[in-house]
Amino acid sequence: MLAAIAALVYNSEQRYHGTPSGIDNNVIAYERAIWFQRQGDGPPLIAPVAIARPFRLLIGDTGVRSATKLPVGAVRERYNIEPVRYAALFDAIAALVHQARDALANGDRGRLGAALNHNQELLRQLEVSSPRSSGWSLLHSTRGHRR
Asked: Cβ distance 38 to 22 under 8 Å?
């Protein structure tokens, strides 16, 4: 049943995003944080993410509307021009994702916040981060993980 829900949501996302990652539809279907990793041409690895202690997550909306497929396509074009630079950025993001998962499993909010902030900087370098969100990481690092 969950796989059918995930497939239905994925198909609807294709209309808006072009080639969606598969993450959103699986989070919706499984109703929890998941570890999602593509496995070449095979089915993705999907596993629950352990969260040692509750935390609050603030999600901000810049108000800027954009079809996801436009910036994704632009990143693909830049990757084709500078593959070494972009591969290094993708590898750094992958390492941060592993750090964030470990921080969640260990209840380490400070390490989680640091990983998210660093990731935001890497997204800026990929040119997929909005200038309107540039101050959000600073706010988090000065207040967000003290509780």
From this structure: yes
Q: Which CATH class is domain 61-147?
A: alpha beta
pLDDT in tens, the chain (147 residues): 888 888 888 888 887 767 777 888 888 888 888 898 888 888 888 888 999 998 877 777 778 777 667 788 899 999 999 999 999 999 999 999 999 999 999 999 889 989 988 998 999 999 888 776 665 654 444 444 444
Token pair recorded at residue 6: 């995930």
pTM of the model: 0.75
Give the separation between CA 62 and CA 59, rounded to whole angstroms: 10
**How do the domains of the chain map onto residue ranges?**
1-49, 61-147
DSSP structure class, residue 133: G
Residue type, position 124, single letter: R
C-beta of residue 103 within 8 angstroms of C-beta of residue 111: yes
Half-sphere exposure of 147 (CA within 13 A, CB side): 8
Helix (H) or strand (E) holding 125: helix 109-125
Do the beta carbons of residue 37 and residue 98 sit within 8 Å?
no
